[in-house]
Amino acid sequence: MMKVLTFGEMMLRLKPSESKRILQSDSFEANYGGSEANVAVSLALQGDDASYVSKLPANLLGDAALGTLNRYGVNTGKILRGGPRLGIYFFEKGASIRGTNVVYDRAGSSFAEAKSDEFNWSELLKDVDYFHFSGITAALSKEMQETLLSAVKYCQENNITVVFDTNYRGKMWTPEEAQAFSKKVMPYVNVVLANDEDFEASLNIKAFDGDMKHGIDQVESFKAGMREVTKQYPNCHTVASILRNIQSVEDSQWTALVLRDGIFAQSPVYKMHVYEGVASGDAFGAGLIHGFLHDYDLQTQVNYAMAASVLKLTIAGDLNLVNESEIKSVMQGADAMSR
Amino acid sequence: MMKVLTFGEMMLRLKPSESKRILQSDSFEANYGGSEANVAVSLALQGDDASYVSKLPANLLGDAALGTLNRYGVNTGKILRGGPRLGIYFFEKGASIRGTNVVYDRAGSSFAEAKSDEFNWSELLKDVDYFHFSGITAALSKEMQETLLSAVKYCQENNITVVFDTNYRGKMWTPEEAQAFSKKVMPYVNVVLANDEDFEASLNIKAFDGDMKHGIDQVESFKAGMREVTKQYPNCHTVASILRNIQSVEDSQWTALVLRDGIFAQSPVYKMHVYEGVASGDAFGAGLIHGFLHDYDLQTQVNYAMAASVLKLTIAGDLNLVNESEIKSVMQGADAMSR
Amino acid sequence: MMKVLTFGEMMLRLKPSESKRILQSDSFEANYGGSEANVAVSLALQGDDASYVSKLPANLLGDAALGTLNRYGVNTGKILRGGPRLGIYFFEKGASIRGTNVVYDRAGSSFAEAKSDEFNWSELLKDVDYFHFSGITAALSKEMQETLLSAVKYCQENNITVVFDTNYRGKMWTPEEAQAFSKKVMPYVNVVLANDEDFEASLNIKAFDGDMKHGIDQVESFKAGMREVTKQYPNCHTVASILRNIQSVEDSQWTALVLRDGIFAQSPVYKMHVYEGVASGDAFGAGLIHGFLHDYDLQTQVNYAMAASVLKLTIAGDLNLVNESEIKSVMQGADAMSR
Amino acid sequence: MMKVLTFGEMMLRLKPSESKRILQSDSFEANYGGSEANVAVSLALQGDDASYVSKLPANLLGDAALGTLNRYGVNTGKILRGGPRLGIYFFEKGASIRGTNVVYDRAGSSFAEAKSDEFNWSELLKDVDYFHFSGITAALSKEMQETLLSAVKYCQENNITVVFDTNYRGKMWTPEEAQAFSKKVMPYVNVVLANDEDFEASLNIKAFDGDMKHGIDQVESFKAGMREVTKQYPNCHTVASILRNIQSVEDSQWTALVLRDGIFAQSPVYKMHVYEGVASGDAFGAGLIHGFLHDYDLQTQVNYAMAASVLKLTIAGDLNLVNESEIKSVMQGADAMSR
Amino acid sequence: MMKVLTFGEMMLRLKPSESKRILQSDSFEANYGGSEANVAVSLALQGDDASYVSKLPANLLGDAALGTLNRYGVNTGKILRGGPRLGIYFFEKGASIRGTNVVYDRAGSSFAEAKSDEFNWSELLKDVDYFHFSGITAALSKEMQETLLSAVKYCQENNITVVFDTNYRGKMWTPEEAQAFSKKVMPYVNVVLANDEDFEASLNIKAFDGDMKHGIDQVESFKAGMREVTKQYPNCHTVASILRNIQSVEDSQWTALVLRDGIFAQSPVYKMHVYEGVASGDAFGAGLIHGFLHDYDLQTQVNYAMAASVLKLTIAGDLNLVNESEIKSVMQGADAMSR
Amino acid sequence: MMKVLTFGEMMLRLKPSESKRILQSDSFEANYGGSEANVAVSLALQGDDASYVSKLPANLLGDAALGTLNRYGVNTGKILRGGPRLGIYFFEKGASIRGTNVVYDRAGSSFAEAKSDEFNWSELLKDVDYFHFSGITAALSKEMQETLLSAVKYCQENNITVVFDTNYRGKMWTPEEAQAFSKKVMPYVNVVLANDEDFEASLNIKAFDGDMKHGIDQVESFKAGMREVTKQYPNCHTVASILRNIQSVEDSQWTALVLRDGIFAQSPVYKMHVYEGVASGDAFGAGLIHGFLHDYDLQTQVNYAMAASVLKLTIAGDLNLVNESEIKSVMQGADAMSR
């Protein structure tokens, strides 16, 4: 079986129940997740061999985060323990015209403070076939960018496919910083994911007219941007992107475009009633990688990844708690009403 | 006051909170219900004299199930106690494109294991005017089918109206088995309910083109199927059916057709935002029976039954916790926004 | 900073969790609110100087209500304590075609039983610039109507702007009673709010064709009604109204009309997925007053007030827990999907 | 089977979760109970034929209260519906040295406002063998005292045993008022319950030295008081009393004394860790009546009643949710640790 | 590192919140556990290499049970999937004199129905050093007894230490059946655990006077029984037992005796306030095995095992969620009050 | 009315429900508190004029913390807003022999990072009569120690009584660091609180034999230590201390000693069943200050402060949600069982 390793930060997510605001809430639902951890969990639940590398504090919170990964079948043997704290983010689920709101409390975390030499890539990447990380990891510090560059260089030398989810976060760094990093890392990247504003913010490539609420109406513009990526970075054989039209927190349409080896494929458009609009990009990335691992043809790959992604929109928490057969059932348009 | 008796299995329903998956849930909401029990509760809450016959284990779970029936006014004096266990079903509420999911754990229940001679129909059906059961009861065992046949024969001899909700469950038996039973029981049935795929699976009568997501678009086809039922089974004076167009777990349209004494009536179409898509067929059946008990004209009956049915879609749990005036208020299109 | 004083009753609201019915609920979520208290809290959270006058019982429930006001920054120093009890209302949140349901248990409350001479208006209204109350307060008793008339007379003599939210409640008084009060109080009112059926029920002025589900389709008719108000009551320089088209408990469209100094302005129409349809009128009133306090131009005022109002529809409880910048963000059509 | 009728007020009890204070609580657990309703439920769960008469409002709260009685098997066919409201009480469970706290909100309830002529005793008491009521009912109003006197006179004329639980509540009336009523009613009473301070407050009979925390240490003094009762009221063949030593909310010792036909019996002393210290007197009364219904000898009766009473201290809510075999198991000192 | 394998059934435990009764509960807390699974989880959390073998259904409940084991670090790679269902037990936590109550719903489970030849012991026990099972497993069926006998024979031939927790359950089999099995299996057992009535019920050896509430007062009698075990079964080098004095569900004293290679050691006596009285025997067994794995001297072993066992009494659920350092901290009498 | 100002850090406290461990918890109860904030809230609820100075982040968490203070009547007008984050602590409530466990996540908080010159003491302490802070504040940083020294010097110059709760936290600094700070600050302190090990750790004064579980048994030794404090620091007119005997997390005895102007007084000893063992020292400090504000004689002051302190042990969360009359009721030994 092929092996995937993902690398990034795991955080405690604290969310008021239902759609309450923090101001009125006297309890929080607790989940543990993070972009790359979410990808690893998705893959493990889909039956793949997924490992995760990070650094978690050697305290009860770190234990709980680790327990989450174990629970869903991720290999956690290479995770470092130590450092000051587990990063936290507070998550206020929006409703209708009130957008979902995130308050980061992640500074000074064990992972963000980890030193480059704590990660011995020749050991960590031994026998690995796919290496996945996101722009969030890079946004944490210059040190972490160095760490990532060491990793991707090792990958290139050892024929490990590098998957980079640009995942731009405006609360963490500026477009200029993101683009500077992309410039350095993209020559080593084989598969890149860029959704919505990521193209412009992370890659400095124009893909749409700036109105994120009408992505699906701009498919051709996105295609042009995707082609530009492969032109600038010839090592990058695959560019994938989620496009959305958004009416409200609950109502939106979703489709995906993949450009692989010069050929485009688009998934069906899903009209969604969103239950929790978080981590669908991670679910998409995992679906895409699953497609590579199992040699899906291009159209199947994009359809599968999109079905995985929209399933995530129906599930509470950061993790896409579905297996392969459930994703395929959505791909095949199973009856929404059980008997 | 006329008397109704319903007969079937009652189960413990265990549901993760909100739309959580079982995999992530560390608690379950508990409800007690079952197709025929739901009908009895609906009728009792609407002011009718409703009794329920079943067999419940003589343990705390059986007590709790019994308490539920008592709470809402069902006559429970004829319920048997004993046997191994209360059946259970786990209920994962879906969201958007993720369908609702049911895991049955009902094998070996006190009711399923009950012997035919435990039910003394001449006593149980004394003074009863309407006898209701569903295909779920028949699907439990050959023995239960014998039990039902004894009951309906007694009804025919004693002028008790027999109401049969075909209620096909693919997880319990095959269409062939269901049809074999229908063949035997239908000659004794006076009122039959068949929704969606029930026509074909239970009655082996073609009523639509196989696409359950577009039932309302096929009204004429359904009418033909309903006429065919009355043709094959002349004792059956009423055939009733719910038709739906389904977009997602939350969004669907609902209407009902009733063929009574050769005349069709259709309810208005309701555009629904579904809160919990379960037991609306039972609510419909109860509404229909309530119409018979109170001599509603055909159009009022179908409208009332449909209003009862769609109200159920707004209520948590298996039971349709509404009274007659609330149903009539929906029939009359009351303002959805209170003051 | 200008000062606002609102005057009315505060109640304990008891609501079954999610959309459960009272009949099936073994717990209630507790909130403390009331039309005028809601306005005061909204203003305080938006950074204004807001005081609230009422009478709360000198028991643990009164303490809890007071704590709620303090929590969100309302000046509570003038609130009276004593009397028999805190009013209560039970709130069943509807779903789809099942309307939201309110059971009042407010008779005999400390505020409803308060005597006119307990409120010393020259002290209470000292330094106040805006005085706000609603028709709910007037509906409590003849005595309370006298109390209000004393207050508004004092306001007129002391150049305090009087804001009257007609807020008709059919469960509390008849249109005839409401209209009789309006006749007496309107000559002292400077700003009046009337939504939906309030025009006819409270002011005896025809504003629409009786179908509250299609208010937005009748803008012109509403405008005529609003002009009629200013014609009958020349002291009333501003008339404001929310208009709605309603499809279900969850789905509706919202807009607002304001007639100020003879000029109309209308807000954009918001297509809403309603989370909890309560107290949006209070949020609107607070937004309107905030506009006066900060010299917003007419169009900004109506847009701001409407944005505040629809935000309330996304928030649990009676209180509009948003600040000025969040309201402005909705006014500017911020992205509904956070990053 | 012998029949018992109890008569009194049923209320909604609202309790913060665990041992929270009202001031900090944003939800309440809801239970429906009341002294005489609790007795009826206890008897029904122990297999006896128990009816309850009261007046409940014709609203959703009244429905919910009724549902509770039905759920546990009480005959509710004679309950009146109508009137203004359901009484409420707020219940703060104490801890250690912080005593449990009750806030009444029961004024103006449907039952308290009910008129004497609404209760037709010759119909209500038809075929009844035991009639039970408490001092709480009498404390509601002079009218209710008249109602009770009519009832007990009817009982005496028709050989119905009258059980009176003095149940003094200092928040409802003064000792003088209670004693005046006792004077009138006691000549018709056959069985009287008086615990702790009830002797002095309700019956004006000295039974202990005023220190309720050391009741068990004063058994002889209680016996003297009990004898005095039978001396003053010769119709009263049985006097029963619970005696307690109290260390804290959680820790106390319990015993019971019964004087029946001139003979005393005392139950064992139970050393209790109290889970919820409410309604144990009602549980005791029900146990006592159960003993009469089943011809228990005196020692068995007092032991059974005491076991029922202390079991109530282990159960959440007002209702003693145990059956006869569970009570007998405690009587026999079953192992506290299950296997 | 030495390896431990435990073998048995895992069930879903459903428990009403706090100390509620099933009759009044509308939700259940869900945990997954079972005697041998609990031992495996304990060992894994204490840093040992623990594997678990069982058979879980291939459905969502089986997935959830598996996820629990993974979460806490147990090796689950050898667990079989398939069969009809996951066993369930309902757990009513008692209080004071109301004992904890268990309702089994475990008949027909995937594990109970598993065939002997599904377990290939030479594969399953490869490289294993300690094999642990309990009498509960044997009580499931004759087939399972055969399975166990095959296993222990393999162990004896391959120098794998066999640990047998007699764990008598009167709801599952009779003493006669248990003793018959013990006769067959004990010749292969090296370490036996027997608490309270287990000696007599499972081993037919007299160890105390029948009063389980005063075990600690009968240390000498227990020692005699333990010596008798080693006399009858010379292969059995270690006999371990928990002794308790029990006052109520919450209050009890605990100590442990171990007879190892002919020498006795006793742990300190712990005076406990029990939070949840379940699975402390499994925690004890795991502590004992941990002592063997790490070559603890006898006194340390019994002290460690007892500390682990009483810690379990403070933790919700079936699993002893503590690590080695927390157990040692209790052994050393750490301050109960944190700073 | 005299004015009190307290100064320190406020944190978000996250606690698993009931006595769950973090490892098994998927939600946290949220409270906002901190030693000095707790004192301010206590005083405000007891009717005193209490202000609090701190620095809270300008985000939703800071708003929520502020709302808590407002809710209970603390003056918050002088609180600074800004800086990186709100400190957090995770709180695992222990049970029996499992001690309560705290995980700090407070590094880098807005308050800890605040600079000395952000606090303008001549403004902040204007009109203040009592200034209170704890050793926790000093433990945060050298900078904070400087800030405190500026404050207490200002107090001495302006006749403001300085109350210093030594409150040693071994997870924050060493005894050496604490003692170095005490040396500097004590010459300005008028009232010092030192419990248990604080004497030795913070003040380097021997007060007991090192066994914190038997404080009450060492009253004389504590008295000697207290006298030594006043000898070393003549400005310090009052030394107060809580002494405990501890059996388990739930069971302990509590008393207090105060040495004021050379005279000792001791409160009664309370035998407690502890509900939540946190912040009782803060409640004690507030009670002591309340005694000064209202000129209580020494014995009343120590009795009042101790009653306030043990009441806190019965209340969930960091805040002592009781008023003056409730404290006095406990002082007077009110009946623990309500009627």
From TrEMBL, chains A, B, C, D, E, F:
<dbReference type="Pfam" id="PF00294">
    <property type="entry name" value="PfkB"/>
</dbReference>
<keyword id="KW-0808">Transferase</keyword>
<protein>
    <submittedName>
        <fullName>Sugar kinase</fullName>
    </submittedName>
</protein>
<feature type="domain" description="Carbohydrate kinase PfkB">
    <location>
        <begin position="2"/>
        <end position="317"/>
    </location>
</feature>
<comment type="similarity">
    <text>Belongs to the carbohydrate kinase PfkB family.</text>
</comment>
<keyword id="KW-0418">Kinase</keyword>
<dbReference type="InterPro" id="IPR011611">
    <property type="entry name" value="PfkB_dom"/>
</dbReference>
<dbReference type="GO" id="GO:0016301">
    <property type="term" value="F:kinase activity"/>
</dbReference>
<dbReference type="InterPro" id="IPR029056">
    <property type="entry name" value="Ribokinase-like"/>
</dbReference>
<dbReference type="InterPro" id="IPR052700">
    <property type="entry name" value="Carb_kinase_PfkB-like"/>
</dbReference>
